[in-house]
Design brief:
Helix content of chain A: 25-40%
Distance between the termini of chain A: 50 Å
Number of domains of chain B: 1
Largest interface: A-B, 71 and 55 residues
GO molecular function (chain A): formylmethanofuran dehydrogenase activity; NADH dehydrogenase activity
Strand content of chain A: 15-25%
Oligomer: heterodimer
Domain Molybdopterin oxidoreductase (chain A): 48-413
Helix content of chain B: 25-40%
Number of strands of chain B: 6
Structural class of chain A: alpha/beta
Number of strands of chain A: 19
Order of helices and strands of chain B: EHHEHEEEHEH
Shape of chain B: globular
Protein name (chain A): Formylmethanofuran dehydrogenase subunit B
CATH architecture of the largest domain in chain A: 3-Layer(aba) Sandwich
CATH class of chain B: Mainly Beta
InterPro entries (chain A): Formylmethanofuran_DH_bsu, Mopterin_OxRdtase, Prok_molybdopt-oxidoreductase
CATH topology of the largest domain in chain A: Rossmann fold
Number of helices of chain A: 19
Strand order of the largest sheet of chain A: 5-4-17-16-15-6-7-13-14
Structural class of chain B: alpha/beta
Strand order of the largest sheet of chain B: 2-4-3-6-1-5
CATH topology of chain B: Barwin-like endoglucanases
CATH architecture of chain B: Beta Barrel
Organism (chain A): Methanolobus halotolerans
Chain lengths: 435, 129
């Protein structure tokens, strides 16, 4: 049977037009990108984690779900300040249970945003954001700017689905009705496909944005900005003019802006530039969110506790102080003593000092395939694949909630979803804590 | 050679990571790689392997060099992966996000073995356990 309109659980694009046909031992996937197709193949892969394991005296052994949940609960209950890293490749429903466990135990709840667009969120908190849905940008935008993001490789269908090539209501000729500018220190495939590539020097996003802002305000930037950024003033002026002459400018920022020196201040000035540009034409900005439901955690945490990530419950009420209550800082400073990692390969994605400490402390993880985090974990609980084996909610890159339906069932009789696994774990934790 | 390190996605890195193949040889070949321009590669003496060393000299990772026109002189790129993160600095400027882009590193020729992702976890992070 062919299943249509399946949601892809890989990146923030949340493509909703995937077509799959499940056969005996194989799966045919249509419309997905290279990354999406690879993830759908996990349904039939031979390396899928199908049994819970625990590490005892340095040796890893298969155990029952009951025993693994028991051991996981013991680790988390015995910790003074456990870290809950509630990854993005699962539903908001599972993340919500994880946050409630963190609150109950007085731990810290964080997610991929902290090592992804966390600074972007902080920039938005500083200056607000002129945003638009992906559909609005598709129908209206006649100028696209990819700043610090290689869309073709990090969100491969963005250009064809929303950004550059699709025919929109006001851009009926697709690519021919749009100008495309890329700002990146590398010559990426996205830059190659652009009409204009501003190959700026690394860590000079703030200076370039300041210069564009100055030009927009009718003033001449200091000539030293050419040497600093590596971009001629004439090109900066041409870019500002192109923007002003467009009917609708859509700017997409990536980690090139939020992870370079300047961090959230780069985002802050970009957001202020966009606000100013709206005096001349319609202009909006959005983040290309690489991880699947990374936006969902921000929405959920803000809705439930008032803060978008790095939520610390140690004092009995939610606190948020990036640099102190965020995963990398907590691990670098050795400020947590156990970790629960769900649907994210945290060990792979953090600096060595943090990864080393994470491997030292007791760790429980939920995952579907072997990876550095499962290797370093003391308890591994098999994960259920959201949008394939269970239903739930993702938030797309533009913060639009997307409900997904499965096309097959969980391979485990013990659990139907990661949400259910966490609910079982929560029950065990409560029983141990109250005993 | 001093350089600024950039890290980020490549489509094959994404394909292999999302497909659960982080322990495959293909993943090592895709990600344990340091991109640089031909001029910088020549300055290094065209080595078969290079060591990328963090600014504080505390961490080093051996990877294969890749010569490409995508890079400007003085800049190197390692795909987002465990190899890149060995030398990414853990300070976050009080944002929670480490210095994935734009940190100074030293790149030099090496004879050190290029470790797999699993070997990095076991040898570097778990102390050979």
């Amino acid at each position: 049977m062919v299943y249509k309109n399946i949601i892809c659980p890989v990146c923030g694009g949340s493509c909703d037009d995937i077509q799959v046909e499940l056969k005996e031992g194989s799966i045919d996937v249509q419309n997905a990108c290279k990354m999406g197709n690879a993830k759908f193949q996990e349904i039939v892969s031979h390396h899928r984690i199908l049994k819970p394991t625990i590490r005892e005296n340095g040796k890893v052994k298969d155990v029952s779900w009951e025993e693994s949940l028991d051991r996981a609960a013991e680790i988390l209950v015995n910790a003074k300040r456990p870290l809950f890293f509630l990854g993005s490749e699962t539903s908001c429903e599972a993340q919500e249970v994880g946050m409630h466990i963190a609150e109950y135990l007085g731990g810290v709840a964080d997610s991929n945003a902290t090592i992804c667009h966390g600074p972007t969120v902080m920039g938005i908190q500083e200056s607000g954001m002129v945003g638009a849905t992906a559909g609005q940008a598709k129908n209206r935008a006649d100028m696209i700017v990819y700043w610090g993001v290689n869309a073709l490789e990090s969100m491969p269908r963005h250009m064809s689905k929303y950004g550059v090539f699709p025919r929109g209501y006001w851009t009926k000729r697709g690519r021919f009705d749009r100008k495309l500018v890329t700002v990146d220190p590398r010559v990426t495939p996205t830059a190659t496909a652009s009409d204009l590539h501003m190959q700026l020097n690394p860590n000079t996003d703030y200076e370039l944005l300041s210069a564009l802002f100055t030009i927009l305000n009718g003033k001449e930037p200091h000539p030293s900005v050419e040497d600093i950024t590596g971009i001629p003033l004439s090109v900066m002026k041409q870019t500002v003019e192109m923007m002003k002459e467009s009917n609708f400018v859509a700017i997409y920022v990536g980690l090139g802006v939020s992870s370079s020196y300047g961090k959230h201040r780069n985002i802050e000035i970009a957001l202020n530039f966009v606000k100013e540009m709206n005096n001349y034409t319609k202009c909006n900005i959005g983040a290309l969110r690489g991880h699947c439901n990374v936006a969902g955690f921000n929405q959920l945490a803000s809705y439930l506790y008032g803060y978008p990530f790095g939520v610390d419950f140690m004092k009995g009420y939610p606190r948020y102080n990036p640099g102190e209550t965020t995963t990398v800082d907590l691990l670098r400073e050795k400020d947590v003593d156990a970790a629960f990692v769900m649907s994210a390969d945290l060990v792979n994605h953090i600096p060595a000092d943090c990864a080393k400490y994470l491997a030292e402390i007791p760790m429980v993880c939920v995952d579907i395939a072997p990876c550095p985090t499962t290797t370093a974990s003391d308890v591994v609980l098999p994960g259920v694949i959201d949008a394939m084996e269970c239903d739930g909610t993702f938030y797309r890159l533009d913060n639009v909630p997307i409900h997904f339906e499965p096309f097959t069932d969980s391979p485990f009789s013990e659990t139907k979803s990661n949400e259910e696994t966490l609910k079982m774990l929560f029950e065990k934790i409560k029983a141990k804590k109250e005993a | 050679m001093q350089a600024l390190l950039n890290t980020g996605s490549t489509i094959n890195e994404g394909k292999l990571a999302k497909g659960g193949n982080k322990y495959s040889e293909e993943y090592t070949k895709e990600c344990a790689v340091c991109w640089m321009c031909a001029e910088d590669y020549a300055i290094l003496g065209c080595p078969e392997k290079v060591a990328v060393i963090s600014r504080d000299g505390k961490h080093m990772v051996a990877v294969y060099p890749k010569v490409t026109e995508a890079m400007m002189s003085g800049h190197v790129f390692i795909p987002r992966s465990i190899w890149a993160n060995v030398v990414v600095e853990p300070d976050t400027f009080s944002t929670g996000s480490p210095r994935y882009k734009g940190s100074p590193v030293t790149v030099e020729p090496t004879n050190e073995e290029v470790l797999s992702a699993e070997e990095i976890v076991l040898k570097l992070y778990m102390g050979g356990e």
